[in-house]
User: What shape does this take?
Amino acid sequence: MLLIIDDDIAVRTSLLLLFQNEGMRAVAASAPQEALQLLAQGNISLVMLDLNFSIETSGKEGMELLKQLKQVNPAVPVVLITGWGTIELAVQGMKLGANDFINKPWDNAYLLQSVKTLLHLQETKPLHRTRKQLDSLYQFGNIIGEDERLLDILETIGRIAATDASVLITGESGTGKELIAEAIHLNSLRKQKPFVKVNLGGISTSLFESEMFGHVRGAFTDARTDRIGRFEMAGKGTIFLDEIGELETGSQVKLLRVLQDRTYEVLGSSRTKTVDIRVVCATNKPLEEMVSKGTFREDLFYRINLITLHLPALRERPGDIPLLVNFFIRNLKEMYNRPALTVTPAALKWLQQLPLPGNIRQLKNLIERSVLVSRKDELDTENFRSQLAMSTVKKGNLQLPEVGSITLDELEMQMIQKAMAFHKNKIAKAAAALGITRSSLYRRLEKYNIPYDETAD
Assistant: This one.
């Protein structure tokens, strides 16, 4: 049973009809006391709450009622509705326990999507299945591991995949965030539609709108043809926004507007387009810390993390390392036509004790380098140790200038110029070589007035 709390009879009637047409049972209340009495009866599965019950539009009435609702039933999902809502009010409501925020006039499809998602999440509970049971129910073929924390993540994916809940995937670099995002898509109702990955760290602020929303011919100097944006490419499917913690503040505002209103305008066009997509984001940055420092918008943070999945570092699940090593070895057998490749038990045990700050990506590179260098098919501890030592020496044996002979800015500028020249002004490759994102490289190019050609990529 849904509970609608709104002082406007037209809104109450409209929502009652909308839910009844979808086969959902709903009741309505026009005042706080009536709403609390209905909630206390115990059969309410979700609340639609108007933030205002008087001429004053401060939202205090709704916020106070939200607190009371959560005291009566802390587990009940709450969707806030308002005709004049501000982002700050939405954030305040989310902090008090609301699950979503809808503006009047609302889009019926989006409102129903939000309600159905929250109801589904409320109804499905974790069952702590084994890996074999999970594999029989879902498509997790490319995800290797049996660690309890990984199984909890896979079970959560199974529970949320059929919904349109926004998901934020966190974890260190190399932990497999993209694989998790793909698994969410492959097990969803949108699996036959596109899965579009966007590396937000690689998009400069000046190109954000063109890249994400598309542009029409003549929208700017180099816009010689129409271009479809990433949101349109992902239509009816899933968009994966990787490295969202790298997004500039100005671009964060533009992204928030799309996620909140589900509409955008193509650059150079006044036509408004609507989006029907599932949004999955990922970051290795501490977004909550960034929010407190003011470098990441709090309102955007609450929009993207209805569900948060934190991937453990590989050193936190050492039992999965032999499984990953054997998986990589099986692939390398075919890739390099070496069917007799094996790893000794002693080597597997040694690999399990490595810190591996680069996680799965580092482990994969170490295995592949060892296979390529070794002439024998049985790899032992020494094969891996020598390759690990060589990679450490390469990074540690740097010849730096004498202290006082050059400033840090001058050294950085020279290194950027060298990388740009080596990679023939290709921004993406130069940024990767320097270990920074494209967005960071663009900022440094402008800081040091280093000329570059955006079309070189």
About this structure: Residues 393-397 have pLDDT under 50 and may be disordered. Residues 171 and 231 are 25 Å apart (CA to CA). The radius of gyration is 26 Å. The chain has four domains: 2-123, 144-310, 314-396, 408-456.
